[in-house]
Design a protein that fits this description.
It holds the Pfam family S-methyl_trans. This protein is an alpha/beta fold. Helices cover about 55% and strands about 10% of the residues. It has 15 helices and eight strands. The chain is elongated.
Length: about 475
């Protein structure tokens, strides 16, 4: 690197490896790094795919790899986690060696493919999409980020990568940490690329061009290039345009995504709303020609008497790129056609050799058809779910939904508290009713007893005539009927 040639990087690793494994990395807290443990051979074949397609540089499958992440999500020890990072480098090197052997040791364009150790941001470890926001920079200290990055960078360099790819960095704070950490390994080289939210600013809000210049001036000896990745391709030109005006040119690197938006809950969205990346490549290459044109015009304007001098720019870089793109496309097409034919041949050979099959497992042809149908249904269901989620997000704004949900939860808590108090009061009321009923019954019995005693006293207190004495004088006496 550094000779001014245009180099072609590999593509999205998680997308390509899904052609070899039966699942995708979307939603996984380790992203495609999990396949280092579960599918190492598929990692190797994915690297080989990119080399056969024309990549000059391949990145190790360590973007979201970290010792803490492996320990937490794979249940391995710290040393085993470092071993997986070393394995990632070994697989990339094996793919390069295989590619060179298949080409009789003669690399394309006489350029031996380079291996870049992928170093993703701290936000990728958090698995909440914050590498596209950079908000963790306001809470996480520089020392914490340094201690998190250091084991991976140290292991990648010791394992023999040609350079480091410090990528998708959303804030200047973390970029500064990485640049200072790189100085601890004086022989190491790296490129540094940022995550941007628009055509002017980093994801965290800092000015992109100002940040790039600061980073370059902080360590020009070890940084090979600076740029942007994992952003919409339509913002790249404005981000890079004019960055080298009036200064020694800074080598640039860019590898945006296809323009889709990533949502941590459902993955990549807006696939049907983006243009092909080929539409933008010519524009990016023209940026370099524009910068050269400005320099030439400046020189010509400073030379007296040569106002009519004309200078035609050489188009070497653009011609090289077109040649590489055509060769890459041809190699990629031939490689995958060959791979498809080999798989088809294997299926035919296996089907011809296996006339009998296990009845318990079922007819393999029927099972294959059923599997294809299941995949179709899964795809249709996922599309339907995405549409429902999109419709729901259009109906109820997410922010309002969160507020209402929090309010709903608070009201539920208050309702539970009131319900508990009500039940306690109801139990107390029931006890009081029982006590009052018992007291009422007791009082009624006591009242009846008192009334009976009163009647007895009344009878006892009423004077009775002595009929023996007054019977002859009081009518209706003792003998009267």
């Amino acid at each position: 690197m550094g000779d001014g040639k245009v180099l072609v990087l590999d593509g999205g690793f998680s997308s390509q490896i899904s052609c070899h494994v039966s699942t995708t990395a979307e939603g996984d807290p380790l992203w495609s790094a999990r396949f280092l443990q579960t599918n190492p051979e598929d990692v190797f074949h994915t690297h080989l795919d990119f080399l056969c397609a024309g990549a000059d540089v391949i990145s190790t499958n360590t973007y979201q790899a970290s010792v803490e992440g492996f320990v937490k999500h794979l249940g391995v020890s710290s040393e085993e986690g470092l071993g997986l990072i070393r394995l990632a480098v070994d697989l990339a090197e094996r793919a390069r060696d295989t590619y060179l052997e298949d080409n009789d040791g003669t690399p394309r364009r006489n350029l031996k493919p380079l291996i870049a150790g992928s170093v993703g941001p701290y936000g990728a470890y958090l698995h909440d999409g914050s590498e596209y926001l950079g908000n963790y920079a306001d809470k996480i200290s520089s020392e914490t980020m340094k201690e998190w990055h250091k084991p991976r960078i140290k292991t990648l360099l010791e394992s023999g990568v040609d350079l480091l790819a410090m990528e998708t960095i959303p804030c200047f704070k973390e970029a500064e940490v990485l640049i200072n950490l790189l100085k601890e390994y004086p022989s190491a080289k790296a490129w540094l690329s940022f995550s941007c939210k628009d055509d002017k600013s980093l994801a965290h809000g800092e000015d992109f061009q100002t940040t790039v210049i600061k980073c370059w001036e902080a360590n020009p000896k070890q940084l090979l290039a600076l740029g942007v990745n994992c952003c919409a391709p339509k913002v790249v030109s404005n981000l890079l345009r004019g960055i080298n005006d009036g200064r020694e040119p800074i080598p640039l690197v860019t590898y945006p995504n296809s323009g889709e938006a990533y949502c941590p809950e459902i993955g990549w969205t807006d696939k049907d709303k983006v243009d092909s990346i080929d539409k933008y490549v010519h524009e990016w290459l023209d940026l370099d020609k524009t910068e050269l044109k400005k320099e030439i015009d400046k020189v010509l304007s400073s030379v007296p008497g040569h106002g009519k001098l004309r200078f035609e720019l050489r188009d070497d870089k653009f011609s090289d790129y077109l040649m590489l793109m055509r060769e890459r496309d041809a190699r990629y097409t031939l490689y995958h056609e060959n791979l498809a034919l080999e798989l088809k041949c294997k299926e035919l050979v296996n089907s011809s050799q296996c006339h009998q099959y296990n009845e318990e497992q079922g007819d393999p042809v029927i099972l294959r058809i059923a599997l294809d149908r299941c995949r179709e249904q899964l795809s249709a269901t996922q599309s339907k779910l995405k549409k429902m989620i999109d419709d729901y997000s259009d109906t109820v704004p997410r922010r309002e939904y969160d507020v209402l949900e929090n309010k709903h939860n608070e009201l539920n808590k208050k309702l539970d508290t009131l319900k508990t108090e009500y039940e306690a009061l109801e139990n107390c009321y029931r006890r009081v009713v029982v006590i009052i009923a018992a007291q009422k019954k007791s009082l009624q019995e006591e009242l009846s007893e008192i009334k009976e005693r009163c009647r007895e006293l009344e009878r006892a207190g009423t004077p009775r005539p002595q009929w023996e004495i007054c019977a002859d004088f009081i009518a209706g006496g003792r003998d009267s009927k």
